[in-house]
Amino acid sequence: MKLCRYGKNGFEKPGMIDAQGNIRELSAVVEQIDQGTISPSGLAKLRKIKAETLPLVKGEPRLGVPYVGISKFIAIGLNYADHAREANMAIPPEPIVFMKATTCITGPNDKVIIPRNSTRLDWEVELGVVIGRKTQYVAEDKAIDYVAGYCVVNDVSERAFQLQSSQWDKGKGCDTFGPIGPWLVTTDEIRDPQNLDMWLDVNGRRMQKGNTRTMIFGVAKLVSYVSQYMTLMPGDIITTGTPPGVGMGMKPEPVWLKAGDVMNLGIQGLGEQRQDVVAFPG
Q1: How many CA atoms lie within 13 A of 39 on its CB side?
Q2: Is residue 14 within 8 Å of residue 64, measured between CB atoms?
Q3: The pairing of beta strand 262-267 with beta strand 271-278
Q4: What's the pLDDT score for residue 87?
Q5: How confident is the model at residue 164 (pLDDT cuts 50, 70, 90)?
Q6: From CA 144, how far away is CA 157, in angstroms rounded?
Q7: Could you count the other beta carbons within 10 Å of the beta carbon of residue 192?
Q8: HSE-up of 268 (CA within 13 Å, CB side)?
Q9: What b/e readout covers 49-71, taking b as 16+ CB neighbours within 10 angstroms?
Q10: DSSP notation for 1-60
Q11: In angstroms, rounded to a whole number, what is the distance separating the alpha carbons of residues 71 and 204?
């Protein structure tokens, strides 16, 4: 299934995507796409519904974050060997875990706002892994059973902020630095999360092109690993790292985002995002 939320910011309604890519209204079935909806029992209930029997949503409404109830936005650094090389950083012997502030989360096509004092704004297309039930000390061979589905994430980053210290969080959690969506695609549609093509364009120029098969640590490993150090709750999301082609790694000189730029990005089977980059207001 492909689940979404659509409508004005703060007033989104639940939706399901049909086989033709149309939005179907889910309001008569669930009030919201939340932790209960994406639980194993909640998804089992929705799987009984044929999307084509639901009311068609007309027009092209704004898409919001595809579900609510994200208590933790966990990120993995340098999880593609070729990206680590372009960043001139060593390939990590174990996952690098950091956090993105939940206040950075936005819809997939909302504007990315350049924060005050920013000088090195960058992009990162990533696979987001959405947890479907309480996950604590789970074994790697059982980890996918705890996953509800997958999303596209743009791990927008301010490199000057990020690299001011050994702690990356302040360069990762600025407002609008976490576009998620357009859909939450359940695991039954993504049989192998380690074989998904991914890409990102800036102003129509292909910057990133990769595949999740080149991850250093795969999805199951990451879910298991993180669960050894913190309890994951339904709705928590792990964004799993980016392939090469970020602005910081461009040769001969880095390329940084500026007001007026447009990012387009996507992952096979998970949909596409589009963000306009704008200056901080005022």
Answers
A1: 11
A2: no
A3: antiparallel
A4: 78
A5: confident
A6: 28
A7: 9
A8: 14
A9: eebeebeebeeebebbbbbbbbe
A10: -EEEEESSTT--EEEEE-TTS-EEE-TTT-S--STTTTSHHHHHHHHTS-GGGSPBPPS-
A11: 34
> Which range, of 66-75, 88-97, 117-126, 209-218, averages the lowest pLDDT?
88-97
Burial class (CB in 10 A: 0-12, 13-18, 19+), 76: buried
Contacts from 6-10 at CB under 8 Å and sequence distance 24+? 6/57, 6/61, 6/62, 6/63, 6/64, 7/61, 7/62, 7/64, 8/62, 9/62, 9/64, 9/107, 9/110
Contact between 259 and 114 (Cβ < 8 Å): yes
The total number of residues shown for the chain amounts to 282
Report pLDDT digits (tens) over 120-151.
999 999 999 999 999 999 999 999 999 999 99
Residue among 87, 90, 70 at smallest CA distance from 124: 87
How far apart are alpha carbons 135 and 108 in whole angstroms? 26
For 145, the token pair is 């059973």
Tell me the average pLDDT across 200-215: 97
Q: How is the chain split among helix, strand and coil, in percent rounded to 5?
A: 15, 30, 50
What would the mean pLDDT of 163-187 be, rounded to a whole number?
93
